[in-house]
Specification:
The chain is an all-alpha fold. The radius of gyration is 25 Å and the shape is rod-shaped. It is built from five helices and no strands. Helix content is 89%, strand content 0%. α2 runs antiparallel to α3, α2 runs parallel beside α5 and α3 packs antiparallel against α5. InterPro entries: ExbB/TolQ_transport, MotA_ExbB_proton_chnl. This is MotA/TolQ/ExbB proton channel family protein. It is a multi-pass membrane protein. It is found in: Cell membrane; Membrane.
């Protein structure tokens, strides 16, 4: 079975789910690239600037450090809430697929009678495939989102410890 055939069996809702999952994975990839390449450079720059400061204990110095930590926290958590929303949408789209598939089954039963199992099977396929796909996407999404959140928290704590150290 090809991907296109699978998507056709799942109906229109499965295509919508695919778009949500695609956007989700693009945002995950963006976060992974940020954590792997851009943030380490920014972190090294902040640590170098902090260690070059002669005054690290004044109110002004602490304000600069807190500003950097706030910027780091904001940059690290960017798009994480949107990713979480997209993950939450996946099972809802799956349930929408269930409802539309069952409507299709009932429509066939009303028009053709309940004696034609081949026609009813198409509606049942419309009902089950989006549900399964939505649940799988949500489970994977919850795992990946949790890993991203943990990775961001670890980097934030490490930066804070590095900036709190004295010369």
């Amino acid at each position: 079975m090809t991907l296109h055939q699978f998507m056709q069996q799942g109906g229109q809702v499965l295509w919508w789910l695919a778009v949500v999952v695609l956007v989700y994975w693009l945002l995950v990839a963006e976060r992974a690239l940020y954590l792997s390449f851009y943030f380490p450079k920014q972190r090294a720059e902040w640590i170098e600037k902090w260690q070059q400061r002669k005054d690290q204990t004044s109110w002004y110095a602490r304000s600069i450090r807190e500003g950097w930590l706030g910027k780091a926290q904001s940059d690290l958590t960017q798009n994480l809430n949107f990713i979480k929303v997209l993950v939450a949408i996946c099972p809802m789209l799956g349930l929408l697929g269930t409802v539309t598939g069952m409507i299709s089954v009932f429509d066939v039963m009303a028009n053709q009678g309940s004696s034609n199992p081949k026609l009813m099977a198409a509606g049942i396929s419309l009902a089950t495939l989006p549900t399964m796909a939505g649940m799988v996407a949500a489970l994977v999404g919850m795992f990946v989102h949790a890993r991203l959140v943990k990775a961001c928290q670890i980097r934030e704590v490490k930066l804070e410890k590095s900036l709190r150290s004295q010369k």
